[in-house]
Amino acid sequence: MRLLLKSGIVVTQDARLGVLPKGDVLVEGDRIASIAPSLQADDAETVDCSGHFVLPGLVNAHMHTWQTALRSVAADWTLLEYFRHVHAGLATVFTPEDIHVATLAGALNQIDHGVTTLVDWCHNNPTPEHTDAGIAGLKESGIRAAFFHGSPKPDPKPGEPHFSEVPHPRKEVERLLKGPLSDRQALVTLGMAVLGPHYSTLDVSDHDFALARELGLVASMHQGGGEAKTPGGWEILMQRGLFGPHINIVHGNNLTDDQLKAFVDLGASFSITPENEMAQGHGHPITGRLRALGSGPSVGVDLESAVSGDMFTVARMALASQRALDNAAERARSGGIPPTSTVPAAEAFDWITTRGAAMLGMADRIGSLAPGKQADIAVLSLGPLAMWPVHDPVATVAMQGSGARMRDVLVAGRFAKRDGRLATADVAAVRTRLAASGERILSRLKIRTISREVAAA
Fold this sequence. Notes:
The protein is α/β, with parallel strands linked by helices.
């Protein structure tokens, strides 16, 4: 299949190609064949992109997609309430069907908003059936995804160890690598969502870090939210040589400056979720601290049970929060307003494209538009007024962009959304299943919802 995206404002995120104010993108099969101001391809299907941005598909670097049926439930909860109500409560009643429909609906919503790559951090999989249901939901959606296999965090029953004392299950990871996620070049691939020294014992962290390195998988872990389970654990793991580019730190709000520098020097990646971090009490996102070390974050939604799934929103949250911190620091220093902004708007778009790709070790495949790369492409409408006029294309995308205006989304050269409609799902049926799932789960907390009535209407 040959496809010619014609006459769009092409924001490539590629250092050599830059921005084409009016450009064409030729897709052959699953890859980008050419990008130029004007291309001729008589045998290609032509898609008129005038009045639209042509962008790299967005990368959502961290989301617990299994919580999609709980949208808005945690909107007013702090992190402590979230732990109590979700991990020790609601999560324990999920069936494989609940995981499947939540993951399918959450992934479809990401496609709808221009995301072509989703890091699905699944830590509610008490059985292999739950895990397989989540993977099936991702595959059914048509999104590119890294399924980060995690582990549940219920309160232990009498005689059971605390979750912090349980190593990541080698047999289950090996089963996935031999079975549903055996192809490491497929759209859906495997990573590990481990506990790390903030949430586990040193022996567990040592085991999990070594297992990820042995199997060539990204090991991603939360860091923050109270006191560490293993004080000094990070330093011991570094001394043992278990740190490297395969390590991904999520949040990281209370890392010391020395720890952060050591992690950056060792090539670890960082994923922040600014909106939820600020809302639930994690602390300020570490955006500026990373920038000061010559690094930068990838960005994720985190929890649709608390915030929206729009990546443009979370990118602007990261940008605004860091500018606010920098502005406050300047006022404290000089008593005045800074002479210029400390963080360019263009960086916010970088965080949700190229930084996300790098975090997954996929920068050679996704995150930017260039010949030879995968054709993961989002076509964003400027709308009748919302984004006109376009003076600075990248800043316009970063500051006025909205997932709600995505017209087309291609994943590996195939339309996952076209002319404003998702291509692969009976959305009404998914909504009905999702509403029923959410109502059943929430009945545990006796939370009354109207989702089923709304879905029926």
